Amino acid sequence: MPRKAKILVVEDEAAIRAGLIDVLLYHGFQPDAVEDGQSGLDKALTGKYDLILLDVMLPKLDGFEVCNRIRAADREQAIIMLTAKTSDEDIIQGLQLGADDYVAKPFSVAQLLERIKAVLRRARIGIETAHMLELGDDIQIDTRNLTGQRGQESLAFTRREIDLLQYLSAHSERPVPRDELLSKLWGYAKNLELETRTVDIHIAKLRRKIESNPARPRFLVTVRGAGYRLMPG
Ligand code: CA
Fold this sequence. Notes:
By secondary structure, the chain is of the alpha/beta class. The protein has 2 domains: 6-121, Response regulator (Rossmann fold, 3-Layer(aba) Sandwich), CATH 3.40.50.2300; 132-230, Winged helix-like DNA-binding domain superfamily/Winged helix DNA-binding domain (Arc Repressor Mutant, subunit A), CATH 1.10.10. It has helices at 14-26, 37-44, 63-73, 88-96, 109-122, 159-170, 178-186, 196-210, and strands at 6-10, 30-34, 51-55, 78-83, 101-104, 132-135, 139-142, 147-150, 153-156, 220-223, 227-230. Strands 2-1-3-4-5 form a 5-stranded parallel β-sheet, with helices on both faces. A 4-stranded antiparallel β-sheet has the order 6-7-8-9, with no helix packed on it. A hairpin with a 4-residue loop joins strand 7 and strand 8 (147-150). Helix 2 (37-44) runs parallel beside helix 3 (63-73) and helix 7 crosses helix 8 (196-210). 28% of the residues are buried. The structure holds calcium ion.
């Protein structure tokens, strides 16, 4: 079995730090945390972390400086910066210093987890969580084996259903129009009115598997006039 990914949290705000540790533990990662930039740098330079979650405004050394020094020592280290600063200038500065990605505070857990998984995937780290998709508290879907668990119940999916879930999950911040799903997942040209029914049929099948009441979906919702949206939480 693949090992758990080790993640170092560098964050001076105690409540955010504790929250991040809880979320990471719950989702199968192995977190460690420090509260200032210098300790973060020292720990990061041990090279034993798969990913560094790095706040920008930190005591002793700020996050940009920490990022810069980690990069100087280790070009491969995966780094995601957590920041309340969202101006383009800050983002450009951070990316120039070599952060792999950015998450602006306040962030949702689902959004943060997607970024973490994406960065770890790009870093080609064989973590056990990267292929798990979680919905609510009781559904876990193994996107590699096309299987899932809903409470005590076992679920089986088709490749297409999993692709659909993964695409919606990667874009869970917005509803995804059916013609986008058709073009991205089925390779159809857009605006083929007849074919949108294909998407609806797959959505209906998925709802019967993951929703306790498919007629009133909680996870796979219809946004009238806009498409389908996955609400993972
Ligand atoms: Ca801070």
